[in-house]
Prior knowledge:
Blueprint: H1 27-37, H2 42-59, H3 88-102, H4 105-125, H5 151-158, H6 164-176, H7 180-184, E1 191-192, E2 197-201, E3 207-211, H8 214-224, E4 234-238, E5 254-256, H9 259-269, H10 271-274, H11 292-304, H12 309-316, H13 325-328, H14 332-341, H15 344-349
Antiparallel strand pairs: 1-2, 2-3, 4-5
Helix pairs in contact: 1-2, 2-4, 6-8, 6-11, 11-12
Amino acid sequence: MTEIGSVGALRLPRARVMPQAAPPSLYTAAVERYLTGAGIAKSSARIYRISLTTWGWMLAGEAAPTGPARRGAKPPVFPITSIDDPALPEVLAELAAARADEMDADTVNRELSIARKAIGWWQRQGWITCDPTIGIERRPAPPDRTKSLAENQIAALWRLDVALREKTFWKMLYESAARADEVLCLNVEDLYPQDKRGKITAKGGATEWIHWQSGTAQLLPRLIARRTRGPLFLTDRKAPAGTPTLDVCPETGRARLSYRRAEEIFEENTRLLANPLASPEDIEELDGWTLHRLRHSALTHDAEDGTSTPMLLARSRHASVRSLERYARPGVDAVARHVAERDPAARRRT
């Protein structure tokens, strides 16, 4: 027994971290245990799984695939305990730096943050003891002031010749200002078509409403096609074996559309819109828009139209007014109108 002396404070020996449950043997199993045991919202689980799969390759000492090679690549198989390899931090730092040179800073920082959250959770379970990401710094990400799409860009988007699924998905994202992962988690039974609203699981796990307008309302009946339950947005093919039941339509057997695939489709279809001076022959070398820009544009356009701060908070479902600063900044159309209205030459012509 340790006694308190006349001088100094009582010092207790540091307690060992004991595993709270039988540790998984493989990294992939540890990822699934983290996603289910750490309270990750269903709407965020897909993004977390993609990021942790990416980091899985690097934690295994391999370069993470990028571009088209990333889609469909199988996660690496290695024991979760290999994360404690003392040689890993140096190897990991080199792999992370190489990846950061190929990806945008926001993606790199988001993936690093998710990896650290998972590693911290595994440490608290007693499955691993080390954090090999220590020393890897976040990349500076200068703000992009052009994320809000102009009105003519939004109009051009609606004119694209795409499938009904994409038309409905993009329209719902813009009209509701919802996050893409939240909308992809919608089931048919979550919809209230007559009220033009739906019930989603928001970031953080809260159940909330999103609201849409007539554009989405006109497309939804055709997309649903008399289905009464199951995922709203489906893949074109039957769900592969092993797909979770919640992600399979019980009436068609097709799987829920993934965030990764939805992002790819949007990016591919908007390459020429994002690069209006480029030649269609160079389309494979171009970059299109991200799905998040629809949410960003909707909130920016709301702010330009004089929407009140409380309503913007309700629309965006942010908890802090400070989070609205990125949207309250006038977009390109508002600034263009402001400059044109004050053009001396234009006033003389009038």
